[in-house]
Design goal:
Length: 507
């Protein structure tokens, strides 16, 4: 029996997990670390916090697993995307990483659009200039910290800094590189044209690999420190969502997953590159070699339900404590008693602005149709429906691009709700499954390592041998028909309010 390690470098912490080759979790360890916000809208982390967390995790899982270290065949990496890591010529970190949720680069996005042009950006990088992406962060450092910029010799993404410390190699993979706004998405390599127009040196960027390729090997020094075998392969790995897709078997046409976390994600595999010309969904290279994925992102999925619980549900929190159950289980019970459409009440979940499909940071949450007849339970049901309608927006765009979805996996904390999963199936009009394993990106990274190490010949075969459904919700045609008129009204609500959202933001 061979064993694989997946390291998932997240925003709140890094999870290191060791799996047997059949996908069973053997040992895992998570180390948390801080997020620094020196100003409003800023978000930074120390790259050495990621490395120390990964190093601690590796030592722990190797020691705790009880497996023969010679049977550990490889390591895969998954990580938060878009973060900027700048190193000098000696490989030393020059400043804290500006991470994915940082919003300081609005002027730099305008600069990128002006220098490259929106049409060319979309044709090459498949996305408009966005504050979250890495290119605008590079320009921000150049514009605001020239003394640091003058020392730059290497630019890496978060997981790739961990790789560098493991192997000594400067490398990345196509899926994570897709979020830098410097990659030619179609040809899966750095865009000389974009780099030239933005005056960013190509030699600063890491070598690009497919996610299943060997990108380096564990050094003798790290092997001695962790108990790993020296020289075991480290797979190129993938960005967090691309790795999560591998971890739930989304590796062929017609498959997708939806994440009900603080934010929401709808992610679909496609064998052929499909790009939304309006930039409402992202098109990135997939962790599956030679393939792509489309992805919609929604800012306030479970955040909406958490906000409603914290703001309006003190009585339910107390009742759940008395009954010894999770408060969200009680909220499910209450919402079930409200008819579809929440008695003609709709909720727009724009608590943190919105990305898909509106790309509007000024959008705000709305209850529409509120009347004196409505009770708190109606608002609760409307919140849950509104989140699902927002996720459905992405699926409609996918359908218009010709990306069809036959079945979908549900992930994230919200997917534990059977009631919410059934709502997803009914509104999406497709089967919604859950995975037997809930290890997500860490498992996906380990499966990528299984191919790099030769344990499985392809990622499809690796997933076929390890990924299984735990539950399945089929869409109900009659219920889908009941949701449809409410969804159509929901879709039409944003446009007439867009200008007033902007006016409110400027008051």
């Amino acid at each position: 029996m061979k064993y694989l390690i997946g390291i998932d470098i997240g925003t709140s912490g890094t999870k290191t997990a060791l799996f047997s080759q059949d996908g069973k979790l053997v040992a895992a360890h998570t180390v948390e670390y801080p997020l620094y916000q020196p100003q409003n809208g800023y978000a930074e982390q120390d790259p050495d916090d990621w490395w120390n967390a990964a190093l601690t995790g590796l030592k722990k899982v190797v020691a705790d697993s009880g497996v023969n270290k010679e049977d550990i065949a490889g390591i895969g990496l998954s990580g938060q995307m878009h973060g900027l890591v700048m190193l000098d010529k000696d490989g030393k970190v020059l400043r804290k990483s500006i991470i994915w949720c940082d919003q300081r680069t609005a002027k730099e996005c305008e600069e990128i659009t002006g220098k490259v042009g929106l049409d060319k950006l979309m044709a090459i990088t498949a996305s408009p200039a966005l504050t979250g992406f890495t290119a605008s962060k590079i320009l921000w450092v150049r514009n605001n910290e020239p003394e640091i910029y003058s020392q730059v010799a290497h630019i890496l993404l978060p997981k790739d800094y961990v790789r560098y410390r493991l192997t000594g190699e400067f490398a990345t993979d196509v899926s994570d590189a897709s979020g830098m706004q410097l990659l030619d998405i179609k040809n899966r390599n750095w865009s000389d044209e974009v780099l030239q127009l933005l005056d960013i040196k190509k030699e600063w960027l890491a070598k690009v690999y497919e996610s299943v390729e060997v990108s380096g090997r564990v050094t003798e020094e790290i092997a001695a420190e962790t108990g790993l075998p020296a020289g075991i392969p480290v797979a190129a790995g993938a960005g967090d969502n691309a790795a999560a897709a591998i971890g739930c078997g989304v590796v062929k046409e017609g498959t997708a997953f939806v994440t009900l976390g603080t934010s929401g994600v709808v992610f679909a595999h496609t064998d052929d590159m499909q790009v939304d010309p309006k930039g409402r969904v992202h098109t990135f290279c997939s962790a599956v070699p030679g393939c792509w994925h489309v992805m919609g992102v929604h800012q306030a999925a479970c955040l909406s339900l958490k906000w409603f619980k914290n703001t309006c549900c003190d009585a339910e929190v107390i009742e759940a404590e008395k009954r010894g159950i999770d408060v969200y289980q009680l909220l499910d019970e209450i919402a079930k008693d409200v008819p579809i459409g929440a008695n003609r009440l709709l909720y727009l979940p724009y608590l943190m602005g919105e990305r898909t499909p509106h790309l509007d940071p000024n959008a705000r949450g709305v209850f529409f149709g509120l009347s004196a007849m409505h009770e708190r339970k109606d608002m609760l049901r409307a919140v849950m429906e509104g989140v699902v309608y927002a996720l459905r927006d992405s699926i409609d765009i996918f359908n218009n691009l010709g990306v069809k979805i036959d079945s979908m996996y549900a992930c994230g904390g919200g997917s534990k709700s059977k009631f919410w999963r059934q709502m997803l199936a009914d509104v999406f009009d497709c089967t919604v499954n859950t995975c037997a394993s809930d290890q997500g990106g860490a498992l996906g990274a380990a499966l990528l390592a299984s191919v790099a190490a030769g344990v499985y010949p392809t990622i499809q075969e690796a997933c076929g041998a390890t990924i299984f459904s735990a539950s399945s919700m089929d869409a109900r045609a009659d219920v889908h028909a009941q949701y449809e008129p409410y969804y159509q009204i929901y879709k039409d609500l944003y446009a007439p309010m867009a200008e007033n959202f902007k006016r409110l933001a400027n008051v």
